[in-house]
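Example S7 (structure tokens).
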């Protein structure tokens, strides 16, 4: 069983999160990896499904055997939940033609030998250049670097138009893989945006940028704040609805591509 470490059968004195993974067969015969977490704050067994897959949470005094029985009892539920997860992005296989999402489109991607792992292209098709002995980690790094460069290019086009109406500019802009948020603004002016934004339609990405920039004017979500957002992005409600409909798919797609 692959694991980061071996969970103790019972852990009454556990004081921090402990994690490992185990293989599990679904009702339809598929094999998946389940993240098992021993959580000192958990009060009960919990099985959940998100963009990162299935997760089994165990309270400190619950045995591994009890956890195994629990997930087997909920096998059909887990199979149904995973079937409903957005999953239109397939993992890339080196040497095999594939595609990756960018700005609301699916772009074809091919492979070629190269001295360093990197993605190059003309906007309509892409090529991932890969050294002969490079592995999955190199592919993930190349994709992440490509997406970050594309996201920064978009931000660079949009940001100058909004700066004149702000009290100050962001102190810096970071791109991160976020689990639930799309963006945040720290007290020091650091603006953090989810890298998955560049996979979706550009107008939605720009809305999130506007939303966080308006927090430089109002730190809350008051009516005054939303008036500032609407003045800069009149269609913000449509973009918010877009994330409600497509957000999980975007985050799940990025997770698939960057998993090494």
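Recovered sequence:
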């Amino acid at each position: 069983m692959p694991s980061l470490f071996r969970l103790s059968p019972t852990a009454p004195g556990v004081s921090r999160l402990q994690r490992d993974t185990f293989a599990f067969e679904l009702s339809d015969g598929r094999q998946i990896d389940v993240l098992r977490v021993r959580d000192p704050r958990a009060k009960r067994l919990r099985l959940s499904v998100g963009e990162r897959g299935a997760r089994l949470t165990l309270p400190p005094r619950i045995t591994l055997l009890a956890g195994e029985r629990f997930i087997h009892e909920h096998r059909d539920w887990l199979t149904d939940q995973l079937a409903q997860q957005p999953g239109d992005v397939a993992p890339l296989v080196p040497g095999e033609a594939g595609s990756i999402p960018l700005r609301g489109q699916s772009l074809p991607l091919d492979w070629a030998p190269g001295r360093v792992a990197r993605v190059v292209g003309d906007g309509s098709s892409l090529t991932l250049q890969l050294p002969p002995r490079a592995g999955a980690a190199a592919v993930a790094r190349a994709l992440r670097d490509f997406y970050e460069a594309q996201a920064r290019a978009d931000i660079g086009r949009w940001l100058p138009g909004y700066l004149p109406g702000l009290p100050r500019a962001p102190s810096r802009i970071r791109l991160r893989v976020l689990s639930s948020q799309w963006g945040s603004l720290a007290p020091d002016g650091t603006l953090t945006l989810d890298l998955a934004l560049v996979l979706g339609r550009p107008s939605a990405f720009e809305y999130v940028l506007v939303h966080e920039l308006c927090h430089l004017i109002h730190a809350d979500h008051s009516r005054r704040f939303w008036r500032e957002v609407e003045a800069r992005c009149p269609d913000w409600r449509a973009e918010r609805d877009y994330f409600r409909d497509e957000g999980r798919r975007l985050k799940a797609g990025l997770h698939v591509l960057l998993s090494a």
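Notes on this example. The chain is about 35% helix and 25% strand.
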